């Protein structure tokens, strides 16, 4: 799933290539992707793309003076920019393309979604706060100082991993970067947020800032087509179960859940003690 660094990079990429161009039209191939009906999608035709920004993990395209196309790429969605876009209208329900934006210079971009879970979402609104997910966002992960993070965590009786991923608590961090942050902070993903000491909270804040800032630096300037591989190349533990930890050389371990998993280094994060994989434990009974 695209997280804060990748969405920041996509906003920068479109800012460089598309802002200032007119939106000729938007084709919707998957009706399920468009979550709003007023204003209609045809309202963007002939209006200028005036800006782009990131809101948590949402991409906000400013169109004309008052419209916003808010995009959430979800787990399997992506943006593909094309210098020469075929002018023919999309055929509904054909292929992975869910939505196509045609620009006045003949370029444009597709929003695609792989897999069977159709969660890619686009909202055309006059106010970004009309999008429920945007309205519920907590403070941006890169906007918080150490005191602000401590205030949030001290009131959360939950595991750190879950708190970092909760967009209503902290916007922008997902499954991958929460694993990376906890690895750098040398903390167990199962540790309780409200039990962290002041020193641990400062350590967590420092890790969050360094991991996300470094990832943004790597991502911004990349083409949309190379962002996924750039993200994977920069990850140290997430998605690397069975490989060696780059810090200590221990094997990277995994805990599986119903629809996701986390990766961690026992030596670096849990005092050498492997965490219980509850799904595997059930199978072994």
TrEMBL record:
<keyword id="KW-0378">Hydrolase</keyword>
<dbReference type="InterPro" id="IPR010663">
    <property type="entry name" value="Znf_FPG/IleRS"/>
</dbReference>
<dbReference type="InterPro" id="IPR000214">
    <property type="entry name" value="Znf_DNA_glyclase/AP_lyase"/>
</dbReference>
<dbReference type="InterPro" id="IPR015886">
    <property type="entry name" value="H2TH_FPG"/>
</dbReference>
<dbReference type="GO" id="GO:0016829">
    <property type="term" value="F:lyase activity"/>
</dbReference>
<dbReference type="Pfam" id="PF01149">
    <property type="entry name" value="Fapy_DNA_glyco"/>
</dbReference>
<keyword id="KW-0238">DNA-binding</keyword>
<keyword id="KW-0862">Zinc</keyword>
<feature type="domain" description="FPG-type">
    <location>
        <begin position="236"/>
        <end position="270"/>
    </location>
</feature>
<dbReference type="GO" id="GO:0003684">
    <property type="term" value="F:damaged DNA binding"/>
</dbReference>
<keyword id="KW-0479">Metal-binding</keyword>
<dbReference type="GO" id="GO:0003906">
    <property type="term" value="F:DNA-(apurinic or apyrimidinic site) endonuclease activity"/>
</dbReference>
<dbReference type="GO" id="GO:0006284">
    <property type="term" value="P:base-excision repair"/>
</dbReference>
<dbReference type="GO" id="GO:0034039">
    <property type="term" value="F:8-oxo-7,8-dihydroguanine DNA N-glycosylase activity"/>
</dbReference>
<dbReference type="InterPro" id="IPR012319">
    <property type="entry name" value="FPG_cat"/>
</dbReference>
<keyword id="KW-0863">Zinc-finger</keyword>
<dbReference type="InterPro" id="IPR010979">
    <property type="entry name" value="Ribosomal_uS13-like_H2TH"/>
</dbReference>
<dbReference type="InterPro" id="IPR035937">
    <property type="entry name" value="FPG_N"/>
</dbReference>
<keyword id="KW-0234">DNA repair</keyword>
<protein>
    <submittedName>
        <fullName>Formamidopyrimidine-DNA glycosylase</fullName>
    </submittedName>
</protein>
<keyword id="KW-0326">Glycosidase</keyword>
<keyword id="KW-0227">DNA damage</keyword>
<dbReference type="Pfam" id="PF06831">
    <property type="entry name" value="H2TH"/>
</dbReference>
<keyword id="KW-0456">Lyase</keyword>
<dbReference type="GO" id="GO:0008270">
    <property type="term" value="F:zinc ion binding"/>
</dbReference>
<feature type="domain" description="Formamidopyrimidine-DNA glycosylase catalytic">
    <location>
        <begin position="2"/>
        <end position="120"/>
    </location>
</feature>
<keyword id="KW-0511">Multifunctional enzyme</keyword>
<comment type="similarity">
    <text>Belongs to the FPG family.</text>
</comment>
<dbReference type="Pfam" id="PF06827">
    <property type="entry name" value="zf-FPG_IleRS"/>
</dbReference>
């Amino acid at each position: 799933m695209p997280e804060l660094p990748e969405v920041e990079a996509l906003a920068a990429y479109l800012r460089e290539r598309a802002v200032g161009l007119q939106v000729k039209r938007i084709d919707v191939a998957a009706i399920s992707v468009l979550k709003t009906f007023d204003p209609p999608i045809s309202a963007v035709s002939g209006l200028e793309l005036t800006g782009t920004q990131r809101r948590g993990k949402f991409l906000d395209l400013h169109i004309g003076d008052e419209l916003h196309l808010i995009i959430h790429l979800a787990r399997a969605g992506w943006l593909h920019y094309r210098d020469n876009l075929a002018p023919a209208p999309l055929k509904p329900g054909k292929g992975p393309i869910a939505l196509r934006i045609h620009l006045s210079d003949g370029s444009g971009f597709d929003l695609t979604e792989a897999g069977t879970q159709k969660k890619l979402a686009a909202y055309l609104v006059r106010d970004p706060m009309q999008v429920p997910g945007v309205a519920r966002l907590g403070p941006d992960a890169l906007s918080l100082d150490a005191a602000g993070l401590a205030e949030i965590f001290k009131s959360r009786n939950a595991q750190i991993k879950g708190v970092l991923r909760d967009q209503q608590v902290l916007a922008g961090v997902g499954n991958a970067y929460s694993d990376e942050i906890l690895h750098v902070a040398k903390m167990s993903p199962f540790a309780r947020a409200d039990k962290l000491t002041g020193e641990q909270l400062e350590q967590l804040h420092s890790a969050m800032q360094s991991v996300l800032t470094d990832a943004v630096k790597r991502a911004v300037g990349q083409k949309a087509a190379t962002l996924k591989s750039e993200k994977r190349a920069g990850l140290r533990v997430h998605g690397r179960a069975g490989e060696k930890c780059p810090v200590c050389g221990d094997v990277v371990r995994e805990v599986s859940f119903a629809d996701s998993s986390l990766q961690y280094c026992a030596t670096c994060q849990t005092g050498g003690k492997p965490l219980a994989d509850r799904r595997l434990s059930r199978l072994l009974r």
